[in-house]
Design brief:
The chain is α+β, with helices and mostly antiparallel strands. The chain contains 13 helices and 11 strands. Strands 4-3-11 form a 3-stranded antiparallel beta sheet, with no helix packed on it. Bound molecules: zinc ion (2 copies).
Length: 315
């Protein structure tokens, strides 16, 4: 067993990033949660409709809806008094997750295997099927992963909440998942898994080696092995040896392209969850020098694509 190869201070800094993302990851990085938000964006509001649409079992659906209500993502409103019946609406905080789903759609479209059906998501501005793009909100230029500089603000690290325990319920495995909406196949496998996300975030900070992943995340060895294998199988990471002959994991081009979803989740977390502290990560758009805020646009008309002007299809 080799020792970790990164400095303890770097591991602490990356761990702080994970802690700052954890509230968002815990709130939304769950396969059922994302499936429910998508069904609601498509206009489904009632319990039976959501159950039919997603295939979630009754008790699990009740639990998820309660959790979404507690998180402020969903609000429950009566639509009948006799007998009392409720329907579920996305709050502004919940509808804002549309941007995260659109960035997942962008990634799916880039990496969809030939023959897979196209989604029915439409940009209502131009009436065309939506192909989401990612631009810089400050200067409007299209932005690729390598156009963004990641900066760790060490000063900000002092204002972070207490380091939280990493022990939490693991999400369901792919073998338990009957639901796979066309629009979000592979990305639900990735973003529905909290451990997978933490490993992915570490990879964006150039963590490569097994023991370094362990040091930064605190994930147990068997779960880490399982998740690394899954990320390699789905083509997000590639296993290779580094210059020193040590085994490591690198983001593939397909893996790097997930940056759009990562920045969308960061933006959502900054808007809705981080009132008392800022993320210790600063993103800078290299070309214009401004702090990077993502803007999702339509490749066809180049106008903004958001929850107000995107048709997610009907349930
Ligand atoms: Zn810019
Ligand atoms: Zn358009």
């Amino acid at each position: 067993m080799t020792r970790p190869s990164i400095a303890p201070s770097d591991a602490l800094a990356i761990n702080a990033v994970l802690v700052s993302s954890r509230q968002a990851v815990d709130a939304i990085c769950d396969r059922w949660t994302l499936a429910l938000v998508l069904a609601m964006l498509q206009g489904e509001r009632r319990f039976n409709g959501l159950m039919g649409r997603t295939g979630i079992a009754t008790r699990l659906l009740s639990a998820r809806l309660r959790a979404l209500e507690a998180a402020g993502i969903v609000v429950r409103m009566p639509y009948s008094m006799h007998p009392l019946r409720h329907e579920y609406h996305l709050t502004n905080m919940g509808s804002d997750l549309a941007d995260v789903l659109l960035q997942m759609l962008r990634w799916e479209q880039n990496w969809r295997s030939a023959g897979e059906a196209a989604s029915r998501v439409v940009h209502l501005n131009c009436g065309e099927p939506l192909h989401p793009e990612l631009r810089c909100a400050a200067c409007g230029a299209p932005v690729g992963a390598r156009d963004i500089e990641l900066k760790l603000s060490r000063a900000q690290l002092q204002h972070m909440p207490e380091k939280q325990s990493v022990h939490r319920r693991s999400t369901v495995t792919s073998r338990d998942r009957p639901f796979s909406p066309q629009m979000l196949g592979a990305s639900l496998d990735i973003f529905g898994d909290k451990w997978g996300i933490e490993i992915l975030l570490c990879a964006f900070f150039r963590i490569r080696r097994f023991n370094d992943f362990r040091l930064c995340t605190g994930i147990s060895a068997n779960i880490l092995t399982d998740r690394l294998e899954r990320l390699v199988a789905s083509g997000i990471l590639a296993a290779n040896n580094d210059a020193a002959g040590q085994a490591g994991y690198w983001l593939t081009t397909k893996g790097v392209d997930i940056y759009g979803v990562v920045v969308a989740v960061e933006k959502w977390a900054d808007t809705w969850l981080r009132s008392r502290y800022r993320s210790p990560v600063r993103l800078i758009h290299r070309a214009c020098g401004h702090e990077f805020r993502s803007l999702t646009t339509c490749a066809n008309c180049e106008k903004a694509a958001d929850r107000s002007n995107v048709g997610f299809g009907t349930p």
